[in-house]
Specification:
The longest helix is centred in the middle third of the chain and has 16 residues. It is built from 8 helices and 19 strands. With about 350 residues, the protein is of the alpha+beta class. Keywords: Signal.
């Protein structure tokens, strides 16, 4: 890590009231548990939930550098279950992987020769999992790095292939959309987008969000593979309205694009969005839930139908833009592709 990047991480830690070492630094207990290295390889098999169709799944356990292991679960027909784990707990032939930014999803397996047997748990649901070794691990898709704090954590999702610079964004969820943040970060990172997920917050003000965004943008600019001309922000709920005011401020941070999810339009936010319209800042408005059409119409009116601004409503999805579906929810109709395509056009 470069000195500049260390300073930026330190700044983010301070702004988020951080008080712990980075996740990559294991405690003594973790080091003892990792004394016997996990078996590197590519494993294929299935996840089965009673009364639901069997899901094909794959697990890759990699050893990218001395002393560091990572794992990736891939579920092709239920992509929201797929994730990369930056920390592997392996002891007495038992493997435990907790999903970054979604701790309610945990994969627990026991090694039996070339087989892994166990379960994938998500909240109160659980799927029986069995995987068989098929060879060497496939190349990694993306990597994830934790910046922990006392009441939450920031997570940096960055594609493994940094040869071609790509878009990057700071994702600022509210508590309603926070459980979906990891799903969006995974989906976007697999498409080459760098995502920094900040801890959720419902009580948002422009004064509080401005320094958080500024430090997050600085961190993204120093991240390998980031196109510094294509770094933006995505905020939800009250944070979206607050961030619009931050960005509309003459001395506020500068971004290449802004994604606003479920923003309610009041006089202050209307004025902010109109200012962003005048500046011709690329803007994507996203709304989910039963009132999505009405709320989207309010933002369209504030923007005045400006070319370059796109507002979409997903009535069949929830405010988190997800639809309930078996073990894990799925993205709403057209998602995440419509978001990925919009980002690529910026």
């Amino acid at each position: 890590m470069t000195p500049n990047r260390s300073r930026l991480l330190g700044g983010l830690l301070a702004l988020l009231s951080l008080g712990m070492p980075l996740a990559g630094c294991q405690s003594q207990g973790d080091q003892e548990a990792a004394a016997v290295p996990p078996p590197v390889g590519h494993y294929e098999g299935s996840i089965t939930v009673a009364g639901q169709p069997e899901l094909r799944a794959a697990l890759d356990i990699r050893h990218p550098s001395p002393g560091h292991y990572e794992a990736e679960l891939t579920v092709p027909t239920a992509g929201t279950l797929s994730f990369v784990a930056d920390t592997i707990l392996f002891s007495n032939n038992r493997l435990r992987l907790a999903r970054p930014a979604r701790p309610s999803q945990v994969l627990t397996l026991t090694q039996d020769g070339d087989f892994w047997r166990g379960s994938l748990a998500l909240d109160s649901a659980k799927g029986e999992t069995i995987l068989l070794k098929r060879g060497m691990p496939t190349p990694s898709t993306y990597r994830v790095e934790q910046v922990p704090q006392g009441t939450g954590a920031a997570w940096l999702f960055s594609p493994s292939d940094t040869s071609t610079p790509g878009a990057a964004l700071a994702l600022l969820p509210d508590t309603e959309t926070a459980p979906a943040a990891a799903l969006w970060a995974d989906a976007l990172a697999r498409e080459g987008v760098i995502v920094l997920v900040l801890p959720a917050a419902d009580s948002a003000t422009a004064a509080a969000e401005a320094p958080r965004l500024q430090t997050a943008l600085s961190l993204l600019r120093s991240t390998a593979g980031a196109d510094t001309a294509t770094i933006g922000a995505w905020a939800s709920g009250a944070r979206a309205a607050a961030l619009a005011q931050v960005l509309a401020n003459p001395g506020g941070p500068r971004v290449a694009f802004f994604m606003s999810q479920n923003a309610d339009i009041d006089p202050a936010s209307r004025a902010a969005f109109r200012e962003l319209r005048k500046r011709k800042l690329p803007l994507l408005g996203l709304y989910g839930g039963a009132a999505a059409n009405q709320r989207a119409a309010a933002l369209r009116n504030a923007l005045g139908g400006r070319r370059g601004a796109l507002v979409r409503a997903y009535r069949t999805a929830g405010p988190d833009l997800l639809v309930p579906d078996g073990l894990s929810p799925r993205f709403g109709p057209g998602l995440p592709n419509e978001v990925v395509e919009w980002l690529r056009a910026q």
